[in-house]
Amino acid sequence: MNTYVILLRAIGPITHKVMSMTQWRDGVAAAGFAEPATYLATGNMIATGPGTIETVTGRMNRVVRGLGLAESNVAVVRRPAELRAVLDANPFPEAAADRPSQMQVFFFADRQPDFSWTADHGGPELFAVVDGHLVVDYSGRISESSRLGNLIEKRCGPGTGRNWNTLKGLVERATAREEKDT
Predict the structure, then answer these.
(1) Which residues face 2 on adjacent strands?
(2) Where are the domains of the chain?
(3) Least buried of 21, 73, 78, 122, by fewest C-beta within 10 Å?
């Protein structure tokens, strides 16, 4: 049995009318996962179950489709160690300390997206790649970067972003789950 962190793409008030977090937890439990726990109301879950990242991703996507969400609401699955590695790398320590809600980590369905375009990006944002994840420091200007998420997805494929505070919360909870299960 492994602990997994599941991040759903494009979750918000509109999708909550189709699939509540309670329905998602119940669906994941019915699919054979132990103790599914959501964190915040934005499509973050920690669950324990058998399988590889690939098989768990397939199972999560089937649960989400079965609950009525669209193909665009993909599940991105990671092991807690992968999230800890991003957190430990902390490529923008000042931003993480002073404005963590202005720093975002993007997780992609494709495990090896092409990040070459970031070198030519002319915006004020700073980018760092950590183990296949894109960390963005919006330099305190997240409201001025409203199109960046679409550009990132266009260049890197389907994925989802979480701010630094959410990443920290997920790592804390997933680590506690792993320690409890050992």
Answers:
(1) 49
(2) 2-81+170-181, 85-165
(3) 122
HEC assignment per residue over 6-41 = EEECCCCHHHHHHCCHHHHHHHHHHCCCEEEEECCC
DSSP codes joined into one string, the chain: -EEEEEEESS-SHHHHHHS-HHHHHHHHHHTT-EEEEE-TTSSEEEEEESS-HHHHHHHHHHHHHHTT--TTS-EEEE-HHHHHHHHHH-S-HHHHHH-GGGEEEEEESSSS---GGGGG--SS-EEEEETTEEEEE-TT-GGGGTTHHHHHHHHH-SEEEEEHHHHHHHHHHHHHHHHHH-
**CATH code for 2-81+170-181?**
3.30.70.1280
Q: Is the dihedral of CA 36, 9, 131, 157 positive or negative?
A: positive
Cross-strand bridge partners of residue 159:
108
pLDDT per residue as tens digits for the range 27-80: 999 999 999 999 987 789 999 999 999 999 999 999 999 988 888 889 999 999
Q: Which of 76, 49, 65, 36 is nearest to 156 (CA)?
A: 76
Q: Which residue has the tokens 């609401």?
A: 73
